Amino acid sequence: MTRARRSAYRCPTLDLPRPMVLVLFTVELLTVGLVAGGLAALPADRSTGLALLGAIGLVALGVVHTELATGIERVRRRVAHASYFDLSSVWTFAGALLFPPGVAGLVVIGVYSHLWWRVWRPAGAGFYRHVYTTSTVVLAAIAASTVVAPDGLATVAGAGGPGSMLPAVGLLLLAMAVYVVVNQVLVALALALTTGRRFALRGVLGEWDDHILEGATLCLGVLAALAALRQPLLILLVLPPLLVLHRAVLIRQLEERANTDAKTGLLTAAAWRGQAHRGLARGRRHRDAVAVLILDLDHFKSVNDCYGHLAGDEVLTAVARTLTAQVREVDPVGRFGGEEFVVLLAGLPHGQEGRTLAHAAAERIRRAVRGLAVRVDQPGGPLTIADLSVSVGVAITGQDGESLEELMQVADYALYAAKRAGRNRVRLGRSEGEPGSEA
Q1: For residue 353, what is the domain's CATH number?
Q2: Per-residue pLDDT at 227 exceeds 60
Q3: Among the record's GO biological process terms, what is one (predicted)?
Q4: Which residues contact 211 (CB under 8 A, 6 or more apart)?
Q5: Catalytic pick from 339, 340, 402, 438?
Q6: Is 28 a catalytic residue?
């Protein structure tokens, strides 16, 4: 067998960073151990049989849900940029509330096995990723199941006294929080180890829209569990609102895709303008200054002429990554057209201090782009494109205007002043005499 053919059989997990491989196997072994241990600890009586029968029913509902939403889910996976919630936590969280930890783990494995077969596998998702994701959800469900004793859910269903209702509801809310945190921490840890980025609290907390979606899904899971206790047929009423939720989330993701530049992953010009207007309004409310940066990649036409447009696209993508790495996550970055980019810097102090900070940010970006070396695969072999540079024009509220249109006009004037001065420079405001830099 040739070396090329042997590589085709190489396990993809071997290409992961070693810390990620360690976390991967640790999480999966812990999952297997907890599920097996939980099942072995169950008493051999009628209650265990009923729990297993109920788990089968819950998995069946998850299968029906996946079949009804398969087309929507495949589209959602294709258009998702980062975080992706499959909404199956309706059934996995309900299993955590209804069953002992071991049986709750079986519900997750059953639902996610079918989900992989019908949605993830055709979309080309790596099997090891799905196994890890399934393991994180199993651990989240086991943790939530441990928090909520069966008596707590029965109390919410009306079996307990009035005085026990409030503590039971508190346990449900705690179980929701535990379910989300365990899952998100493990997923954020995997992203940090595979991408090389620092483990950040923001990666664990996610976006506000993600919180709303996951909260709505978990609430449906609570309702499904309560229906299963009181009147099992009522659990079917969870399916229609769940399918409506699928479509609502798909619309939101399609809107996000429409607002994203396909080549660079940055905001489109229209989407950036919308966020910039909101940033300016927020700055006025908080009495902060806001700066607009317009950047133009110097001599980009020569890159396309010498190396081709595909290589030019690689350069644009590398510059876009550099821009987002040099500013805060709250500062919107967009592609303004061609080789031009725009950045909004919010929360700056007024006066000279704000101008100094805006100039320093522009200089930081200029130096980072100047240090880029973009590796591009060509038919004749890989090559490296270096000697890149950007010219930057900066405008800040106060001296340069208050509206977005005024700031962009002044920043554009400053950009062309930087180009007339020899490119690879930063210019601020209306004056060409502001401090600039050369390579």
Answers
A1: 3.30.70.270
A2: yes
A3: cell adhesion involved in single-species biofilm formation
A4: 205
A5: 339
A6: no
